[in-house]
Write a structure and sequence with these properties.
Number of helices: 12
Shape: globular
Largest sheet: 9 strands, mixed
Distance between the termini: 36 Å
Low-confidence stretches: none
Oligomer: single chain
Radius of gyration: 21 Å
Bound molecules: N-(aminocarbonyl)-beta-alanine, zinc ion
Amino acid sequence: MSTLVIQNGTLVTALYSYKADILVADGKIKEIAPQFASTVADRAIDATGMLIFPGGVDVHTHMDMPFGGTTSADDFETGTRAAAYGGTTTIVDFAIQAKGTKMRDALDTWWKKAEGKVCIDYGLHMIVTDLGNSGLEDMDDLVREGVASFKLFMAYPNVLMVDDATIFRALGQTARNGALICMHAENGGAIDVMVQKALAEGKTAPIQHALTRPVRAEAEAVNRAIALAEMAGAPVYIVHLSSEDALNQVREARDRGLPAFAETCPQYLLLSIEELERPNFEGAKYVFTPPLRERHHLAKLWGGLKHDHLQVVSTDHCPFCFADQKQLGKDDFTKIPNGGPGVENRLQLIWNYGVNSGKISQNRFVELVSTTPAKLFGMYPRKGALEAGSDADIVIWDPEAEHVISAETHHMRVDYSMFEGFKVKGNARQVISRGEVVVENGKFHGKAGRGQYLRRHARGGAWN
Ligand code: URP
Ligand code: ZN
Ligand code: ZN
């Protein structure tokens, strides 16, 4: 395998920023030193004026996922290639246990979906829909296969939702096997009553999706998830947290010293509920759960990121095309497939609206988009670090590069962008995955199928 030296850049880690060169060999960071000669490696990249980050780690994506009568528009090839363009070199996607079947079957199915397609390294969480008789042992089996986290749903009754007893049993099992439970925290029962009432009143437009999922439904479920985790003696990770009310629950738990963690996503930091009222059914582009909130929540979420009440920014990338898939709900908002695209734009958006606007530091940025997700999900220091011995997953970031986000130019296989027309400053110039330059000069140079499955370790950062 060829060697590479990156010269004259400024390394930005979760802790420090400093000038140094990086020598890469055998897909790993071999050495970091003040200066290397260009001749030390087969190829030298001059990174003068550039910042160097560990590759982005997005721990919440849904490639090729069956949902709402259709399948998410990006598969493991198109989705991970788009991720790489944006500086993300690792994703953790979700396999879904079909009710009444073994989780192992779902793992095999998702490995097959990724095989020959995935362009960057990937891990898998398991969505648990049924613990049955052998479900707890199944969880242990999966942990041995590197599935060190499980997602459970408190929403979507009769589809994905599980009851409190199931959640509590799963949490108890992780207290023994060291995995991490991820919670989709919304009170599905109460929401369903509100949804049925809206439909009975003939209210079918996309905005009803948000109006029938109030912030209290999220905050109540977050509170319950944390209480169940506390009783079980296990950490818990709240996914796609969207509101101040939910954030307050996490903050209070953390103030009490509980191992409660949460992520938010760019859409909750940058968009608000009015998007669902766009004319010509375009509000459907913004239908995902939890829904977009009133504008005043946005500043609170940014504050949460700054003060470590929130630990991670992921995308919940789950694209459905407007032209055919979102249209499934033209006459009934409950039939709009829930989800939106974003895996490509996470670093650009958080850099521009977080770092450039002074809300978070460069180091906090790296912590949120790379280092902490790698730690919490059992991948650190292989991922999320610029250290000798880590995988050479490296982003060479041009802080001056300007870019207008648009569906016309993005690489995700979806016909719209939630951030259409957003102007961002700061973009990946080169993206390196295990020592291979996969993105350069706006072109993808990697091969589909080159990505590797990551066997993640249990008792990651949530247990410290
Ligand atoms: O609407 C969403 N978030 N779709 C993806 C599934 C999930 O709940 O994460
Ligand atoms: Zn969810
Ligand atoms: Zn999701």
